[in-house]
Amino acid sequence: MSYVDGVVCAVPTAGRDAYVEYARRVGALFKRHGALAVVDCWGDDVPEGKLTSFPLAVKCEPHETVVFSWVLWPSREARDAAWKAVMDDPLMNPQHNPMPFDGKRMIYGGFQTLVET
Questions:
Q1: Which terminus of the chain has a smaller tally of CB atoms within 10 A, N or C?
Q2: First to last CA, the chain
Q3: Distances (CA, A) of 38 to 14, 62, 69, 70
């Protein structure tokens, strides 16, 4: 079954274009290493909760927008095999390709597909 890496981050709203360019470069890198799809979504209807929410999870500030992204892999094994090559690529070096958001507030994780409809 497929495997998914999920990411949530807070991006400066005024930096949307810079994020799009960054996401295109990084997405192409993941695809070169076997990802089936890379999807980046700009928050449009993301309510702020009192106990839990996407904005709370990434400490989203008033001038920022929540971004939700995922990478679809054919399997956990394919993802694990690609991960080192992806992370070693110069494109992932912040000095060559700085993230247009605060990476310290980014949350991410790998997920086994449970149900696929």
A1: C
A2: 12
A3: 23, 27, 7, 6
Q: What is the pLDDT of residues 2-19, one digit of tens each?
A: 999 999 999 999 999 999
Length of the chain: 117
- Cβ(65)–Cβ(42) below 8 Å: yes
- For residue 74, CA distances in Å to 4, 23, 55, 95, 114 come to 9, 20, 30, 30, 14
pLDDT of residue 19: 98
Going along the chain from its start, the domains and CATH numbers come out as 3-112 (3.30.70.100)
**Does the pLDDT at position 97 exceed 90?**
no
> With contact defined as beta carbons under 8 Å apart, do 58 and 106 qualify?
yes
Largest CA distance in the chain: 41
